[in-house]
Amino acid sequence: AQSVSQHNHHVILSEAASLELGCNYSYGGTVNLFWYVQYPGQHLQLLLKYFSGDPLVKGIKGFEAEFIKSKFSFNLRKPSVQWSDTAEYFCAVNELRRGGSQGNLIFGKGTKLSVKP
Amino acid sequence: DGGITQSPKYLFRKEGQNVTLSCEQNLNHDAMYWYRQDPGQGLRLIYYSQIVNDFQKGDIAEGYSVSREKKESFPLTVTSAQKNPTAFYLCASSVRRGGRYEQYFGPGTRLTVT
Q: Which positions ≥6 away from B85 have C-beta within 8 Å?
């Protein structure tokens, strides 16, 4: 079955540390890739997305992600985290099928990020 | 003010009772979705609907039912057949941008069944 793996369940960093959250998927074809963030008590929000083109995508709040097709990866990065980045981060993938239809979004299990002030 | 609303935010029910969770959107999105979120499990798709009067089972549809009589509304009923109904339920809708779909999420309903 198709799956999305997020390697870290809980990451704890100090402010100003660099962040990289791993995401790997198992689809063999063309995919759309997403990172969502869920701040405590808030909606799940779209952080960034990759559809096609430049594999390095930039999102809100200084986040970026790089799509490496050969590694089936879409890791999320931020050079310097802030306390306000404390949240749960979800990677999600869906496949782009022939004819333009898309498969359902498959989510990873999430990574909790705690940033110590 | 466009968005997705889910009500109520917290819901408590006794075991054996059916309960319906509301989801309304005024974004004019065609597709709507229901997910269940459990700690450490990510989001799992329960049902989805791409058009009015049509819906499809997701990965964990057993014990749930939905309807899609209006474009704006996609209520989810958690039936007494659902073995482990206590969870956080998220509704989403999607829009097509640049040929691809993006999903937007509501605030969620936390259901507790005792």
A: B13, B19, B63, B78, B111, B113
C-beta separation of A6 from A22 below 8 A: yes
Query: Which pLDDT score is estimated for B101?
Result: 83
Distance CA B109, CA B106 (A): 9
> No. of H helices and E strands in chain B?
0, 11
Angle subtended at Cα A56 by Cα A55 and Cα A58, rounded to the nearest 5 degrees: 135
Rounded Cα–Cα distance for residues A25 and B57 (Å): 22
What b/e readout covers A6-26, taking b as 16+ CB neighbours within 10 angstroms? beeeebebeeeeebebebbbe
- Mark yes or no for CB contact A109/B41 under 8 Å: yes
Cα A28 → chain centroid = 18
Model pLDDT, residue A63: 97
Phi/psi zone of residue A61: left (φ > 0), alpha (ψ -120 to 50 degrees), beta?
A: left
Cβ B100–A109 below 8 Å, yes or no?
no
A43-56, pLDDT tens digit by residue? 899 999 999 899 99
Contacts of B40 in chain A (CB under 8 A): 9, 109-110
Q: What average pLDDT does range B81-92 have in this prediction? A: 95
CA–CA min distance A51, chain B (Å): 7
